[in-house]
Design a protein that fits this description.
The chain is mainly α. It has a single domain, classed as Orthogonal Bundle (MetI-like fold). It is built from 12 helices and no strands. Helix 5 packs across helix 6 and helix 7 runs antiparallel to helix 8. The mean pLDDT is 86.
């Protein structure tokens, strides 16, 4: 706990992340106004006590849309990271354990997946199934698979050469058992930090997909689509672009600081070097 309190980046990152998460959870049952309610009479209102962040061109409350957009962005990012980690980590562990042609096959698969960025993957999926949040989750998740596979393989290869793993191998324990009981627990800190990084990148990717119309579809709010809608009124109502931009930046900054803080907290080598 003393190391936790001493880590400024961890404290700041955890605080920002918890605020964004709380905002998303509260939006499940309360927002100042219904986020999809149209009120043309009060369109493009400036921030006030009635509408804290003003209203958009359709009279919708911007703060309510930011809250609902947090739920959308976090949901897409969560599923995308679960898909990426759920497939990529076992693939990386399998490649490290078995080596040989299995390792080569997994690595060539990751090379192929890296050739198709999330946006291009989303375009292909959209052409087949149509735009939507589900397709955005799938596209970002597919892009995350090779990232987790390579990180897991690299970290596992380093741990597999340590003495305690070689001792376990000398006792006759099988490679899969060594991976599950000895290697994966010792690389969990690396994977946890990578999860926070990919979560932040998934939020950016979701905003980008929504911006070009491939992510969450109307009428449900999305930070990326709010930016798209605001560009038409950038000179008349510039705050329409500022508020969702701040939301995206805050979420990504909080997760990156959280990842840096967790790395410092969980990596004993970094702690020892700073004493």
């Amino acid at each position: 706990m003393s190391r936790f309190r001493a880590s400024g980046s961890l404290l700041i990152g955890a605080t920002i992340t918890l605020i964004i998460l709380a905002m998303a959870l509260v939006s499940l049952f309360w927002t100042p106004y219904p986020p999809t309610k149209i009120d043309i009479i009060h369109k493009l209102a400036t921030p006030s006590g009635i509408h804290w962040l003003g209203t958009d061109p359709f009279g919708r409350d911007v703060f309510s849309m930011i809250m609902a957009g947090a739920r959308s962005s976090l949901s897409v990012a969560l599923i995308a990271v679960v898909v990426g980690a759920g497939i990529g980590i076992p693939l990386g562990a399998l490649a490290s354990s078995l080596g040989g042609w299995v390792d080569n096959l997994v690595m060539r698969f990751t090379d192929l997946a890296f050739a198709f960025p999330a946006l291009l993957t989303a375009v292909m999926i959209t052409a087949l199934a149509g735009p939507g949040a589900g397709n955005a989750m799938l596209a970002i998740g597919i892009f995350n698979i090779p990232v987790f596979a390579r990180v897991t393989r690299g970290a596992a290869m380093a741990v597999r050469e340590l003495d305690f793993v070689m001792a376990a191998r000398a006792t006759g324990r099988r490679e899969i058992g060594i991976m599950l009981l000895h290697v994966l627990p010792n690389i969990s800190a690396v994977l946890l930090v990578q999860i926070t990084i990919q979560f932040a990148l998934a939020i950016i990717a979701d905003a980008g997909l929504a911006y070009v119309g491939l992510g969450t579809q109307p009428p449900f709010p999305s930070w990326g689509r709010m930016l798209n809608d605001a560009q038409t009124y950038i000179f008349r109502a510039p705050l329409l672009a500022v508020f969702p931009g701040i939301a995206i930046t805050s979420a990504v900054l909080g997760l990156n600081l959280l990842g840096d803080g967790l790395r410092d907290l969980l990596d004993p080598r970094l702690n020892a070097s700073r004493r």
